[in-house]
Write a structure and sequence with these properties.
The structure holds two protein chains of two kinds.
Chain A (H helix, E strand, L loop, with lengths): L5 E9 L2 E4 L2 E5 L5 H11 L12 H14 L10 E7 L4 H12 L8 H4 L6 H10 L5 E5 L5 H13 L5 E10 L2 E10 L4 E2 L2 H9 L1
Parallel strand pairs in A: 4-5, 4-6
Antiparallel strand pairs in A: 1-2, 1-7, 1-8, 2-3, 6-7
Chain B lengths: L6 E8 L6 H9 L5 E4 L8 E4 L3 H11 L7 H17 L7 E6 L20 H12 L6 E3 L5 H14 L5 E8 L3 H9 L20 E2 L1 E8 L7 E7 L15 H14 L8 E3 L6 H13 L6 E3 L2 H4 L6 H15 L1 E2 L15 E2 L4 E2 L4 E8 L3 E9 L5
Parallel strand pairs in B: 3-7, 4-5, 4-6, 10-11, 10-15, 11-13
Antiparallel strand pairs in B: 1-8, 1-9, 2-3, 6-8, 9-16, 12-14, 15-16
Helix pairs in contact in B: 2-3, 3-4, 5-10
Classes of the chains: A alpha+beta, B alpha/beta.
Chain lengths: 203, 381
C-alpha cells in the first residue's frame, strides 16, 4: 500500500535541551535531569501535579508528549495511538528498586517505586493526562529502529486502529537520556519514511 | 481493506505442570494445580507460587544443549521455542521474526553496586535466544506489563499482515523472583493462599513462572486457529489500578470484534485475565456485562499457574487453543462462590462444549488491556 502519511510535528529532549520542530524552546545544559525536568516543566507550563511522583523515564516521556499533544482537546475523542520503544526498558528504576531490597538489614520495597519498574507506565501517565483511550504498545530494541516505527505506525493507520500515532523513542539510564517523539497522520507534513524519521532523530 | 488471514499452527509451554502442551492439558483436566507453598529467602514469610522444578529444567535442557552459559529463564524460553521451530520446519530467514514477550527478563542478574550485565537488557536476553536458533532478523521485544504475552500475538499478526514478515515465532517468559515477589507484596496484593479468581473469597495474586511459544504465520497448513481480531486500548485512568468501568477492556474487545466481523453473541468461551485481586476481577465482570458477554463461559487459568506476568497471555492462549480444539471448557481453579458485583458465567467444572470462537483478554499496570479473538481452523476436520 502506498504511504500516504506524514510527520506533522516532532520534538527532542536530550542533554538538558528541549527542541520542538528543530527549534530550541528550553535549555539547561549543565543541570542534572531532576532539576532540568523541574525547570522544563515550569517553562513549558505543563501544570500537572502528578508529574512530581513520576520516575525519570515517565517524566522524560511525559514532557515530550505534552509538547506534541497540548493542542488537542483531552475529551476522550482523540484517537492518537502511542507507539513507544527504547533500549533500556525500565532499568533505571529497576536498579533503584533492586537496591532497596538487596540488603536484608536495609530492606524497604516501595510500591510507589515498584510500579515504575515497567516501561509502559509512562504511556499510562500520558494516556491519563490526555484522555487517550487508544492503542498503546511498548517495544525494546538495541538501538533506535526507524524501520520498525515506520512499519508499525503505518499498520495502525492502515487498519484504522488509530487516526494518528504518537511515536516515541524514550530511553533513560543513569545520566543518559533521550526522548524523540513525532506525530504521524494523514495531515500534511514531512513524508513518513524511515529515512526522514532517522534524519529527524539525528537532529 | 482486506487483510491476509493469519494463523497459529504450533504451540508449546514450559510450566510447573509439564514441559509440553499435552502434559499441561492432562493436569488441568484432572484439576491439578502447579501452585505450591514456598519457603525461601525470596520473601521473609512463606508464600505460594507456581515454580518450575530446577532439576527437571536442567535435565530437559541437557537434551537440547550442553551450553551452561544460559540463565534459568533463558533455558525455559529456549525449551519452549525449540520444538515449535523443529516441528514447523520454518527456517529463521529474513522473512521470519522472533517476537519475545517479557516484563522483567533476567532481572535476577542485577546485583547491587555492579555494572549491568548484557543479559539484564531485554534485547540482550532476546539476542541470546535469537542466536541459539540462528534468527537473522532483529528480535522484536514486547514489554507492556501483564498484557505483553497476548499483545505479542497481536503484534506478530499485524507485522505479517503489513508484509514485513511471513512467519513470527512468538515466545514469552517470566520468572518468580525476589524482585517481583517483594513488589507485589509491598502493594499488599499477594494472596496468603493459592489465588481464587472471581471468588468472593479472593484476596489477591499468586505469582508463577512459565515460558510459552507459538508460531504465527500466513500459511494455513497445520492451523489450529485464525487470529481474526485484536485491540490493545488504554484505560486512561490509573497507573496501578484498573478502571472502575472497564473502559479500556471494553474498547479493546470492541476493537477486536469490529475487525473480526463477528458479534459478541458468537463468542463461545472467554479465557480471561482473572488475577484474583478484588479490583481486577470486578473490572472484568463489569466490562463483560457492558458488552453482553456475561453469559459466555469464562475462566482464569491463574489458579493452575499463578500470574506468570509477561508469559501469562501467551501461556493462557496456548491452553485455550487446546480447549477450543478439544471442545472443552476447563474449570476455573479456585472458584467457589460468586464474588463480583455483576454476574458472569465462571466455569465451575470441566465440561464439553463446541467452541468455534475464543476471546482471550488481559489487563495490566499502566492501564493497558489487550483482547484477541481466535476462530477455530477447520482444515477439513
Amino acid at each position: 500500500m502506498a504511504n500516504n502519511y506524514f510527520i506533522t510535528d516532532h520534538c527532542i529532549i536530550e542533554k538538558g535541551k528541549v527542541l520542538h520542530n528543530g527549534q530550541e524552546v528550553f535549555a539547561m545544559p549543565e543541570a542534572a535531569f531532576p532539576d532540568f525536568a523541574k525547570q522544563a516543566y515550569k517553562h513549558l507550563n505543563t501544570d500537572y501535579a502528578k508529574f512530581f511522583k513520576m520516575d525519570n523515564l515517565s517524566k522524560l516521556s511525559f514532557l515530550a508528549a505534552d509538547i506534541l499533544l497540548k493542542e488537542y482537546i483531552a475529551d476522550g475523542s482523540n484517537n492518537t495511538a502511542l507507539l513507544f520503544a527504547n533500549s533500556s526498558s525500565s532499568l533505571d528504576t529497576d536498579v533503584k528498586y533492586n537496591d532497596s531490597i538487596a540488603d536484608k538489614d536495609d530492606y524497604f520495597p516501595s510500591p510507589a517505586v515498584f510500579v515504575y519498574t515497567l516501561p509502559n507506565i509512562c504511556m499510562g501517565e500520558i494516556s491519563i493526562k490526555h484522555k487517550l483511550y487508544t492503542e498503546n504498545s511498548f517495544f525494546i530494541f538495541e538501538a533506535f529502529n526507524p524501520e520498525f516505527f515506520a512499519a508499525y505506525a503505518q499498520a495502525l493507520l492502515d487498519t484504522a486502529k488509530a487516526d494518528r500515532v504518537l511515536c516515541g523513542w524514550v530511553d533513560f539510564l543513569k545520566d543518559d537520556y533521550k526522548a524523540f517523539m513525532y506525530l504521524v497522520s494523514k495531515e500534511q507534513g514531512t513524508a513518513h519514511t524511515k529515512e526522514n524519521i532517522q534524519t529527524l532523530y539525528n537532529n | 481493506m482486506k487483510l491476509k488471514n493469519i494463523y497459529i499452527t504450533h504451540t508449546n509451554c514450559i510450566t510447573p505442570l509439564g514441559f509440553d502442551v499435552d502434559s499441561n492439558i492432562e493436569a488441568i483436566a484432572n484439576g491439578i494445580t502447579g501452585i505450591s507453598k514456598q519457603e525461601n529467602s525470596m520473601l521473609p514469610i512463606p508464600f505460594y507460587a507456581g515454580v518450575v522444578n530446577n532439576d527437571k529444567l536442567e535435565a530437559a535442557f541437557a537434551v537440547i544443549s550442553n551450553n551452561q552459559s544460559y540463565t534459568r529463564l533463558e533455558k525455559m524460553i529456549l525449551l519452549a521455542l525449540y520444538p515449535v521451530l523443529q516441528k514447523s520446519g520454518v527456517k529463521p530467514d529474513s522473512k521470519t521474526a522472533l517476537v519475545l514477550s517479557t516484563t522483567k527478563g533476567n532481572i535476577t542478574s542485577l546485583s547491587k553496586g555492579n555494572n549491568l550485565p548484557d543479559e539484564a537488557y531485554l534485547q540482550g536476553l532476546a539476542n541470546n535466544v535469537a542466536n541459539f536458533f540462528g534468527f537473522t532478523t532483529e528480535p522484536v521485544v514486547v514489554s507492556n506489563a501483564c498484557v505483553s504475552g497476548i499483545m505479542a500475538i497481536s503484534v506478530a499478526k499485524r507485522l505479517i499482515q503489513a508484509g514485513i514478515y511471513d512467519n513470527a515465532f512468538v515466545v514469552a517468559g517470566d520468572e518468580v523472583s525476589e524482585f517481583v515477589l517483594s513488589g507485589f507484596n509491598s502493594f499488599q496484593a499477594m494472596s496468603a493462599e493459592p489465588c481464587k479468581p472471581y471468588s468472593a473469597n479472593r484476596t489477591g495474586v499468586t505469582l508463577g513462572e512459565a515460558a510459552a511459544a507459538v508460531l504465527v504465520t500466513k500459511e494455513s497448513v497445520n492451523a489450529k486457529a485464525t487470529v481474526i481480531g485484536d485491540g490493545s486500548i488504554n484505560d486512561a485512568n490509573h497507573i496501578s489500578g484498573p478502571s472502575r468501568t472497564g473502559e479500556g477492556l471494553v474498547r479493546s474487545i470492541e476493537s477486536a470484534l469490529k475487525e473480526s466481523g463477528i458479534s459478541a453473541g458468537a463468542i463461545d468461551y472467554i479465557s480471561a485475565h482473572g488475577t484474583a485481586t478484588p479490583f481486577n476481577d470486578e473490572m472484568e465482570a463489569i466490562a463483560f456485562n457492558r458488552l453482553g458477554l456475561n453469559e459466555v463461559p469464562v475462566n482464569s487459568l491463574k489458579g493452575y499457574y499463578g500470574h506468570t506476568l509477561g508469559a501469562s497471555g501467551l501461556l493462557e492462549t496456548v491452553i485455550a487453543l487446546e480447549a477450543m480444539d478439544k471442545n472443552k471448557l476447563f474449570a476455573s481453579m479456585g472458584y467457589d462462590e460468586p464474588g463480583v458485583s455483576q454476574a458472569i458465567n465462571v466455569i465451575e467444572k470441566t465440561e464439553e462444549k463446541e467452541i468455534n470462537y475464543l476471546l482471550k483478554t488481559a489487563s495490566g499496570f499502566g492501564g493497558c488491556n489487550t483482547a484477541v479473538i481466535f476462530e477455530k481452523a477447520n482444515n477439513g476436520k
